[in-house]
Specification:
The protein is mainly beta and about 400 residues long. The chain is built from no helices and 27 strands. It has a four-stranded antiparallel beta sheet with strand order 1-2-3-4, with no helix packed on it. The model has no long low-confidence stretch (mean pLDDT about 95).
Length: about 400
């Protein structure tokens, strides 16, 4: 666990450097004052100790004056520079902008990127937020999230998938949809992209959720050509949506691309009039059609016996097994790190944990995992843990042995 400054510290994502060090990003703020919320970055040695060659004592905070800021995703460039993406916005709203920040390997802001290391992207709507970031083989950076087209009461709100692509210096890539931006509307309601995948052929897959009156929220995905145009060969005119059977709230929070081109998406599905919320996983063929060889008609759910369970990250092992990582957001003592492993067919893998599932508690108060990555053959999950006293909550990391 890591405290930044007697503050509320929440880790959202982790990435590994070539030397095995871990870079973890999230947010930090003090005294429940979100207006002072900053990007928080910590770097750890491969054994989990803070790397004191990074920032101050292994930690870096990036302030956006007058705005609350959260880093949601991180990638490491081949030159060792660190790219974090998220958003900065006025207090109690998401009506801010995409923020992409690049750090030098020592934790200092990279002045060759954007404005002193920071790139701000404004979409046509009332605000935006970047939930995911990825690197293309050519060094370009792609961020994905939400464009708040019309931020209003829930029944009339309209948000769209939002993608932005940048050249290596942070300037908008004009070869991507003409201005470096692309937005996708599903049915005129709330559409949010939480994950972005780069295919070997250069196509991009954004995965998240989409709302409509018939099914409420569904898993949703859209595929784009390398120039930012929608790929009409994917799903129905480039878009896919999946209901888990109860016409309730289903949301994909993470996705991974298999070597055979299939797409695995993980998040949560709510059923039984809101009484049940489980990890939910769907697998799609490369054309966007559900893979009938996975789970039940391409879908499966995982129940750890708690309320409000969500898979926030999905990983793919070399042999095709699927790791899901998340937590039960009960705000009580059973709000723990939760991991499950599925076989290639979508069944729980009994060789992992207890019957395919693992629960890790950091203490009596609530905690949870938001992100994960492989460190060699081991799994590192990151998130937060509430504490007693004036340390509020801290970055929390756990590493797991990885059986075959």
């Amino acid at each position: 666990m890591t405290d930044f400054d007697h503050s509320t510290d929440i880790a959202n994502a982790v990435a590994f450097q070539a030397d095995g060090k871990l870079v973890v990003v999230g947010t930090t703020y003090q005294n429940n004052d979100f207006s002072d919320e900053d990007f928080a970055v910590a770097r750890y040695n491969s054994n989990g100790t803070l790397d004191h060659t990074f920032g101050v004592g292994g930690k870096v905070q990036t302030d956006f004056p007058g705005l609350a800021a959260v880093a949601s995703s991180v990638v490491i460039q081949s030159d060792g520079k660190i790219v974090a993406a998220g958003g900065a916005f006025p207090l109690f709203t998401f009506l801010g902008d995409f923020k992409v920040v690049r750090y030098n390997p020592d934790g200092s802001l990279d002045s060759s990127f954007g404005d002193g290391g920071i790139v701000t992207t404004t979409f046509p709507g009332q605000g935006s937020y970047a939930f995911a970031v990825a690197l293309q083989p050519d060094g370009k950076i792609i961020a994905a999230g939400t464009d708040f087209v019309n931020f209003s009461p829930e029944d009339s709100s309209d948000t769209d998938f939002a993608l932005a692509r940048y050249n290596s210096d942070g300037t908008p890539d004009a070869t991507f949809n003409g201005d470096g931006q692309a937005t996708t509307n599903f049915d005129g309601f709330n559409d949010d992209a939480f994950s972005i995948l780069v295919q070997p052929d250069g196509k991009l897959v954004a995965v998240g959720s989409a709302k409509n009156p018939a099914n409420f929220y569904d898993f949703a995905a859209a595929r784009y050509l390398s120039n930012g145009a929608i790929d009409t060969t994917f799903g129905v005119t480039g878009k896919v949506r999946t209901d888990f059977g109860d016409h309730n709230f289903d949301q994909a929070r993470s996705a991974v691309l298999q070597p055979d081109g299939k797409i695995v998406a993980a998040g949560f599905a709510i059923s039984q009039n809101g009484l049940v919320q489980n990890f939910a996983v769907a697998r799609y063929n490369s054309n966007g059609v559900l893979d009938a060889g996975f789970g039940t008609s391409g879908m499966t759910q995982i129940d750890f016996g708690s309320c409000c369970q969500s898979a926030n990250k999905v990983l793919l092992q070399p042999r095709g097994k699927i790791i899901t990582v998340g937590y039960a957001n009960t705000e009580s003592s059973d709000s723990d790190f939760l991991l499950a492993r599925l076989t290639q067919t979508g069944a729980l893998d009994p060789t992992f944990g207890a019957g395919g599932k693992v629960r890790t508690s950091f203490g009596d108060l609530n905690g949870g995992a938001n992100g994960a990555a492989f460190q060699g053959g081991k799994i590192v999950a990151v998130g937060f843990q509430a504490t007693f006293g004036d340390r509020w909550s801290e970055f929390a990391l756990a590493r797991y042995l990885n059986s075959k």
